[in-house]
Amino acid sequence: MSKEKQILQMLQNGYSQRRIASTLRVSRNTVARVVKAASDHGLSKDALESMEETELHHTLFPEEAMLPTLVTPDFPYIHKELLKNGVTLKLLWQEYVDNCRDAGKPPYGYSQYCKPYQDYVVRNKLTMHIQPQPVHQVYD
Questions:
Q1: Taking every annotated instance into account, which residue ranges of this chain make up the domain Transposase IS30-like HTH (predicted)?
Q2: Model confidence pLDDT, tens digit, residues 10-39
């Protein structure tokens, strides 16, 4: 059951907002935000019980449903490109941002681009083979 539904059910059962927050381990601001959204939309007990969790969330917070979706980076391409000499993750991210802007879609920020890539590498147990470069020492 979603947190929103649990919050509203506990509120209908007479719990205080502070008690709901501590019981569900959410902030009091979250509880207040859900309660305010429910009262703004005039949700009845029957309507609450009949709604699915996603439907309830979209009813309470329609502005969140309208947020633009971000373009997911192509992780196999990123990994393949990183094997090339001189290619960095920052360079590939800049290329990704340019492609997103050309398509008119919002891109991920750099840190939000790197973290899913790192997760992809760990999940797929990928490694990068680095060719050792011989070092020439000069003796005086």
A1: 6-36
A2: 999 999 999 999 999 999 999 999 999 888
Report pTM.
Answer: 0.49
Number of neighbouring beta carbons within 10 Å of residue 107: 19
State the chain's maximal CA–CA distance in angstroms: 89
How far apart CA 71 and CA 113 sit, in angstroms, is 10
How many C-beta neighbours within 10 Å does residue 82 have? 16
Residue 94: CA count within 13 A, CB half-sphere: 5
Q: Which two tokens stand for residue 116?
A: 């899913």
Which amino acid is located at 50 in the chain? S
Contact between residue 78 and residue 117 where contact means Cβ atoms under 8 Å apart? yes
- Comparing C-alpha atoms, which of 65, 25, 23, 27 is closest to residue 35? 27
CB-based contact 50:8 (threshold 8 Å): no
Contact 28, 15 (CB under 8 A): no
- Dig out the tokens for 12 from the structure: 């209908």
**d(C-alpha 114, C-alpha 112), whole Å:** 6
Distance, CA of 22 to CA of 6 (rounded, Å): 13
